[in-house]
Automatic annotation (TrEMBL):
This is adenylate kinase. Belongs to the adenylate kinase family. It is an enzyme of class 2 (transferase). Keywords: Kinase, Nucleotide-binding, Transferase. Its EC number is 2.7.4.3. The keyword Nucleotide-binding applies. GO terms for molecular function: AMP kinase activity; ATP binding. It comes from the Eukaryota. It comes from Astrephomene gubernaculifera.
Length: 190
């Protein structure tokens, strides 16, 4: 049923660290569905309405939208897939995200894949991306990077204490990062 417990893998890392790119590849190779919190939020905004406008303003400030909204979107997406394992890209972003997930979903993730990338590299990638995301402007990019480093530490501390964090350096060619992630995935999940 929809409340079936799943094996959840969180993929976290700064903006432009390569989360979407690598989740696509893992999803393809291991046939595991992935849900991007950011994509789900952008779809909700695109659907229109005053609530969407408020969310868009938060995103343009590089801030994190209310946890209940994001967790609701992720729950909805997860309940629609029969897969036992799911990848979640770009969540949690702060301590409150994590605790709301825990109370709303009722169980924690199994693994956190942390993408480590120098800030300057991430910013260069986002400047160069030019796929028309409204938050890819210089001012918002800077705020996204700042908020990531300011707000993720308690989340990572929590998961490190549980031995759930696997760190991957992502300032390398896409194929190299993917090879390392694939090996890690095979080792963990067969
Ligand atoms: N690229 C990727 N890998 C590369 C490599 N190894 N070498 C060279 N280039 C590489 O990659 C970014 C760019 O770099 C691309 O052009 C890619 O080709 C290239 P991508 O894979 O898109 O990186 P990703 O980490 O996914 O970057 P993204 O911009 O999506 O990260 P964000 O974390 O900023 O975006 P997200 O969509 O997750 O969130 C957006 C906003 O939504 C947040 O700022 C926040 O306001 C809001 N949000 C919430 O409030 N709550 C949430 O739970 C989630 C989001
Ligand atoms: Mg992304």
């Amino acid at each position: 049923g929809s409340s079936q417990r799943k094996r959840v893998v969180f993929v976290v890392g700064g903006p432009g660290s390569g989360k979407g790119t690598q989740c696509d590849l893992i999803s393809r190779d291991f046939e595991v569905p992935f849900f991007s919190a950011g994509d789900l939020i952008r779809k909700l905004i695109a659907a229109g309405g005053p609530a969407g406008q408020q969310l868009q303003e938060i995103i343009l400030q590089g801030q994190i939208i209310p946890s209940e909204v994001t967790v609701g979107l992720l729950q909805q997406a997860m309940s629609a897939t029969p897969s036992e394992t799911v990848l979640i890209d770009g969540f949690p972003r702060n301590a409150e995200n994590r605790t709301v997930w825990q109370s709303q979903v009722g169980y924690d993730c199994e693994l956190v894949l942390l993408f480590e990338c120098p800030e300057e590299t991430m910013m260069q990638r986002l400047r160069a991306r030019g796929q028309g995301r409204p938050d890819d402007n210089e001012e918002t990019i800077r705020k996204r990077v700042q908020n990531f480093s300011a707000q993720m530490s308690p989340v990572l501390e929590h998961y490190r204490a549980l031995g759930k964090v696997a760190t991957v350096r992502t300032d390398r060619p896409i194929a190299e990062v993917h090879a390392e992630l694939s090996a890690l995935w095979r080792q963990r999940f067969g």
